[in-house]
Amino acid sequence: MPKAAPVKMTCMYHIKKGKEAAFRRLLERHWPALFAAGLATDEPAIVFRCESKRTGRVSFLEQFSWKNSNASAIAHETPAVTAIWEPMMPLLENMELFKTASVAMPFDKPARRK
Q: Residue 109 above 90 pLDDT?
């Protein structure tokens, strides 16, 4: 039986004004909870704090991999995960979820200068 392929995710969390610290405390527990529940790969999440140059709005971008295509559905039934997700929701203006894949670009390996 072939091994299930991980599913790479990018999550963009748009935070309500004044809720950044509370959200960050939950986000710090997010990937560890997913991993402990056997839902995420052992590659730790990468998290970026993003601030709009135009509006000053703060967002967090999180990249991680689900262990397989069923993991996100299982997460919705996992108490340790929902204990983080439920208090996250009131802190957000919006959330965007993306399945991601890298794309090779011609500039991936710069040409050597002579």
A: no
Q: Is residue 74 one of the residues assigned to a domain? A: yes
pLDDT tens-digit readout, 63-101: 999 999 999 999 999 999 999 999 999 999 999 999 999
pLDDT for 107: 78
Measured between alpha carbons, how far is residue 37 from residues 4, 45, 53 in Å? 17, 15, 37
In a domain, 63, yes or no: yes
Distance, CA of 21 to CA of 73 (rounded, Å): 28
Give the domain range for residue 68: 14-99
Instruction: Please list the residues that pair with 92 across neighbouring strands.
Output: 15
For position 21, which CATH number holds? 3.30.70.100
Report the alpha-carbon distance of residue 52 to residue 95 in Å, rounded: 15
Number of domains present in the structure of the chain: 1
Spatial separation of the C-alpha atoms in residues 35 and 44, rounded to whole Å: 9
